Amino acid sequence: MSTDAGMQAWLASRAATWRELTPRLEALERSRNHSAAEALQAIELYRSLGRDLSIARRLLPDSRVTKALERSYAKLHSIIYRKPHDWRARTLLLFREEIPEVVRELRGAIFWVTLLFALSAGAGWWLVSSYPELISLLASEQMINHVESGKLWTDDMVNVAPSSVLSLGILSNNIAVSLMALCVGVFFGLGTIYIIATNGLTLGAMFAFTHHHGLAGGLLKFVIAHGVVELSVICLAGAAGTMLGEALIRPTHPTRRESFQHAAGKASRLMLLCALLLIGCGFIEGYISPDPDFPMISRVIIGFGYGVVMIGALTGHLFGRRFVKSSVRSAAAS
């Protein structure tokens, strides 16, 4: 048999298999969950296709058949070696490992942002206690009128709107404030400092103003159930915002753009958890905080209990992360 005749015979024997390649590869690419038998068939097809491509390159270099086989081989290679797509495992890894790593990296920033918030709240208290007229710069006229008439502006919240609508509005506002604290970090962190300081100043001023009219206890009763986590999330968002600013001021990658993208990726993971925590805050603030039937002790238990849940989520222990001693971690790292 001549070489041409042998080549024609080989092409004829493989033509049917090659015609089936396209639908088979499309089916493999569409599906992410394959049985063991399907995986073995794909591997066998990969080997067979590799042999065919090797022969085609030797006998028919630069031909359309060879180029088509190369494309199919490359596509099958990418299908076999793509990362497994298990969204459950990926989500668990995100909350159990990746987010706690970001929180650990931001420990210093979280401390300083929280300190800034506390000092700003103290400054707001002192300013309004010393100069009560300054409250008009931080609170609306309607709020001031309510307090001066002996009532909190929160007393009629449930009467104005149903709890479900109220909860949704509060959730939207909380997420907007947190995102603002994060996003203004692009101004080299100065925007985040302004947002955190302004929120702290306003909180302290409102407590001072209500204290002056004998209503600070009522305001604390309203805030305590949701405020522990809500204020903590604002500080977390502020810490993430400072990370964006630091990435621009002191890049850790070859370019500022790459450094900012890396920081933004880490901040977005933390903000996902913050958004989930704020959903709980919105529910509490819509259904529990404005309800006068809930006693103070119940509000304290809810507030600090939810705070414990937040800490468990931030450290990953809520999702099954194990406690690892620092000495063991250091030895593993070395």
Mean pLDDT across every amino acid position: 85
Largest sheet composition? none
Q: Give me the count of strands.
A: 0
The coarse overall form would be: elongated
**Count of domain modules:** 2
Q: Radius of gyration, Cα only, in angstroms?
A: 30 Å
- In DSSP terms (H or I, runs of 4 or more residues), the helix count works out at 14
Written as H for each helix and E for each strand, in order along the chain, the element string is HHHHHHHHHHHHHH
Compact summary:
This protein is mainly alpha-helical and 334 residues long. The chain has 2 domains: 17-80, no CATH class; 88-322, no CATH class.
Descriptive account of the structure:
This protein folds into 2 domains: 17-80, no CATH class; 88-322, no CATH class. The protein is built from 14 helices and no strands. The chain is mainly α. The longest helix has 34 residues, at 216-249. The radius of gyration is 30 Å and the shape is elongated.
Question: Could you name the key traits of this structure?
Answer:
mainly alpha, 2 domains, 78% helix, 334 residues, single chain
